[in-house]
Fold these 4 entries.
Entry 1:
Amino acid sequence: MNKIALSAENLTKIYSKNNNLSKNILALNKLNLEVRQGEIFGLLGPNGAGKTTFINILAGTVEKTSGQAKVWGFDLDKDPRQVRASIGIVPQEVNFDPFFSPKKLLELQAGFYGVKQKDRITESILKTVSLEKQANAYTRSLSGGMKRRLLIAKAMVHQPPILFLDEPTAGVDVELRKNLWDNVRELNKLGVTIVLTTHYLHEAQEMCDRIAIINKGNMVALDTTQKLLERIESKKIKFKIKNLNQFEKIKLDGVKFSKTDSGIVATYDKNKFKFDQIIDVVKNNAEILDISTDEGDLEDIFLQVTNK
């Protein structure tokens, strides 16, 4: 069984407005979760769910109201510096001086963390994120993908065992996104535990071993990606139809039939209806040219548990 890399127990954060109790904002409500060493863990939720508050508590920029948190075996209350040293945070925004080179930036960042000169691995990190050829170039001359990888490199200078990626692919193109995820997978293979927040649910579905979904400060789902997908109750069958003149006659109580440009989509509860039942109803009223199924994805679960 994998060891626990990060844990939260009844972690709570209340933001108060001018000491007015009636205007308090509950950002985290007794959050409980565990992240295992070596996994890619997804932390999902709508805007304002509490994801950033959770990260900022561990980073030391926000003070928790109550509860406990441990990172790499260090207690947040007893060893806050060790907790911060055990995590690297890759922010969404690009936040470095455009006139410095990647090598210079990493050296400065290592200095901020108190890494001694002999212990720095700047060249190795640049190679890991495929920036060794741009080591001495101005960062302003780097492409968007290179700048994203440089953010990861900055977070790795003190060799933290846990890396937080906060919306790392927001606003980037498809090719850039693929390259970035390839890079993250390589880091994970090297033993780095990854905690990912993203609004691109298909990314979380593809990348994460387990996923936690929080909403309004509350944990609403926590399981392996596969088991979360198994919760999906609805299923869709897409029919390509030769003639839609008889669409109004296609009916079955409990099944929703909708018309599309190329045919019909049947949406139904997979626990109540059999595939053959749906096929027969359509076949009796239209000529079917093609059939495809949609089992649903993480977006369906996200909408289901957050009541969106």
Entry 2:
Amino acid sequence: MLSWASALAFLLLLPLAAAVLWKIWSERRARPALMFSSTGVLKKMAPGWRSRLRWIPAGLMVAALVLGIVALARPQRSDTKVKKSIEGIDIVLCLDISDSMVIEDMPPEKNRMESAKSVLKKFVESRPNDRIGYVVFRGEAFTRVPMTLDHQVLLDAIHKTRPTRNIKDGTAIGSALATATARIKDSTAKSRVIVFATDGESNSGTIDPETALEITKGYGIRIYSIGIGKDGQAMLPIETLDPFGRMIKRYQPIHSSVNDALLGKFASETGGKYYRATDDKGLQKVFQDIDRLERTKIEQNQYTRYAELFPPFLQWAVGLFLAAVFLGSTIFRRAP
């Protein structure tokens, strides 16, 4: 980027322009005379090349002065660099993928899992400077994505999340919390967070929720826990194939309940917060709140380096000035 350190120097162009105009006007007005016996011979003589080019010394002098003024204005090229010091936050997203997460009670027309996935992806996209991991669980827990800054891999994993029969049935809240803690416990980030989302009660797993909570507290990790869906009777969608190979969806009654006391304890004893989300908009507000509470600290320092560009202008000005003096004293010298 080009800038001028002493732009006021350009005001000197005004008196220079005035002097040039005055010089041109005065020369045209002047009527020099010379006594000669006969002008007939002079009228037949054509002007020589020196006469035609007599303006060159004056022109070079004006050009030298203009370039000198440009050099005096000090043209500069600025190179601005921004140095960012980022203090990231490490986050583990822990999502329940048990069968009850496909209950369709998260309007508009979404089941619990699809609603949670949609909000999780937006949350990840809003935090480009944070390392984020992803743990899923039902009767047991496993890590889908370890802590990473490659958020595209994380987003793909969230998008492909489905309820699966390949792992044990149930809701292993204690095992899930312990797995999430294991993923983040060695982090050196100043802020370490687990976002724990489930729609059920702990009824499976090899680690008790209370034990997992003590482990998490011991590492100073904060938990934001989320209870998803409504309590009470619900209809669980089940898809089966008919004799003709067509997919048929039928619904089975199921009792759904969230252990508010346990999830609230997770949050209160680790310095986090517990939320209850019973619809899609409520779940979005929960993650917006978490996003505001856990912001990445970014310190920004701006450095501007200037490169002086006036030396070439000054060199040309001196060169043209010397050329004007030399030509005016030799080739274009005028007799008094």
Entry 3:
Amino acid sequence: MKGSIPILFFLCISSWLILACNLDQAIELKLPEYESRIAVEGYLKAGKPFGVLLTRSSGYFDPFNLNGNQLLTDLLVEDAIVTIKQGEKVYELENKLTLDRFTGKVFNYYLDRAVPANYDEVFELEILTAAGDRITSSTQLLKPIEIDSVNIEFDPDDPALARVLTYFTDPPNETNYYRRMLHEGSLDSLAFQDFSTSDRVAENVVVFGTRYVFEVGDTIINTLFHISEDYYSFLESVQGAAQANGNPFAQPSPVISNIKSEIDAFGIFTTLNYDQRITKIKR
């Protein structure tokens, strides 16, 4: 009972403070005027078409236009010149809205030519906006890290449920970054698991696992991305910004970008390199 007095005292003081507050008093927040920025998203996959999405960011409390055409006008950055260069080859993307059904991503600058599987030379992005602003970035293809095996284990306490264990070998003597995604049923569904990590947490053989939640007949899609440090930092910062956005007491969390410009554009230009395994759970 030694701890009872301090706890009761704290509760009494807390109750008094709450009652003493004028809960009906309005609080006026003076927020600085938000300046819209250009956001860039470009993902290159060997053998797939080129695609870049250019949009404008907006303030948290700005009105959201539900009119489809006006929404696209407010959101998309049009009439820019977008080129991607690798060595002596220059690829100019067309300004047209396109849905990549393979990745589920939308682009408004697109070129239906296969990204060359050249792992030695850097891809250089250059964007010239209609206002004359220049935005640049660069990235390089990384070789996929193959999944060694996908094992299914049934719960000894509840044999109807199974978990999935995904094994791969991390290359030694180098720093690597990974994004692991696991879907159930199809890639159109929300990912059951989606996280990024570095190989600082593990060496040699790495295993990603799940809880015992799957049943016989379920289809599991394992995707292991080998990602750049730039993309890893971007993903981690986006997650941090999303968490801070939902917490009224958190400090704003900036998005770490590999986009360079004089107009404070931000975003990511990177490559998507992955190995994928589809497994049907069976005994």
Entry 4:
Amino acid sequence: MSAGRQWLRDAEVPAAALEAIRAGVLLHGRQQAQGSDATDIAVALYQDGELIAGSHGRTEFRRLYVNDLWVREDLRGQGLGGDCLRQLEAQALRRGCVDALIETLLDDVSEMYEHLGYVCIAHVHDYVPGFTRHIMLKVWTPRD
């Protein structure tokens, strides 16, 4: 081991180091793929000044990548998740995106995405014990 090197593990690793690792992986990947135009995208719904739903992700390479979609628990089942997703999609379409990618571990949520035009392109059964990872794509304009 070289002088001055020190391994940190688990909780010893500072949050800033974790973020630097994530950023380094993303930067390396983007350097491999020419023409990255990654831009954050988000929507948030407020009621009486309180956040009740929202979604965020990024657009890159003419694709919407949805990272998170959330609705306050007491308001779920009322269509707000679909509304958030449609709002995000509309922004992505204005940016020139041709498709959208979203993932979930919940079967009922994957069914909601299917009703919104997404198609499951991959499953990972028991991704987390008792849960299947659904990777879903919605195509607005087929790629060449």
